[in-house]
């Protein structure tokens, strides 16, 4: 490290010359080599420096500092790297806002689900209310008197249309009612009053 006196300085152009007993010729110094100092150099400052040679053969001062002048605080690369890699911490306000947004979204989802369930439940019950009442076996005994024009479900007492047409082929009044209401070409209700086999003593 050399020590010399700044004998000239052009503040407008940012350069000057250092005179040192350890260097044969005055050494050129540029402001860029002192950018880390807290103030600009001035004539009469004592400068500590090293000498480097440009590719064109000219020498200049590098790694310079001004005696008695503190260096400006320059963030080192290590500090910059540490700051960049520092874990990001979400502020309490942002955390609270994020939590509130999640709760609102959950409430909306639950509300939609509950509404859809209620609509499905209401439609199901409405459908059940509109279903045609099922005729039980007990109703068949007086069925022809209550509502002779009603249609008996085909699956009542497991009756089925099997080609029989006459009262003598029936086993009960209920079966006869089923046949005249659901099966073609029956001959059990001559007067078409909806009451089959009126003259059959078995019923």
From TrEMBL:
Keyword Transferase attached: no
GO biological process entries: regulation of mRNA stability
Keywords assigned by UniProt, alphabetized: DNA-binding, Membrane, Phosphoprotein, Transmembrane, Transmembrane helix
Superkingdom assignment: Bacteria
InterPro entries referenced in this protein's UniProt entry, alphabetically: Ca-reg_mRNA-binding_domain, CSD, CSP_DNA-bd, Excalibur_Ca-bd_domain, NA-bd_OB-fold
SUPFAM superfamilies: Nucleic acid-binding proteins
Membrane-spanning segments: 99-117
Domain CSD: start-end pairs: 1-66
Keyword Transmembrane recorded: yes
Molecular function as annotated in GO: DNA binding; mRNA 3'-UTR binding
GO CC, any one term: cytosol
UniProt name for this protein: Cold-shock DNA-binding domain
Species annotation: Pseudoalteromonas translucida (strain TAC 125)
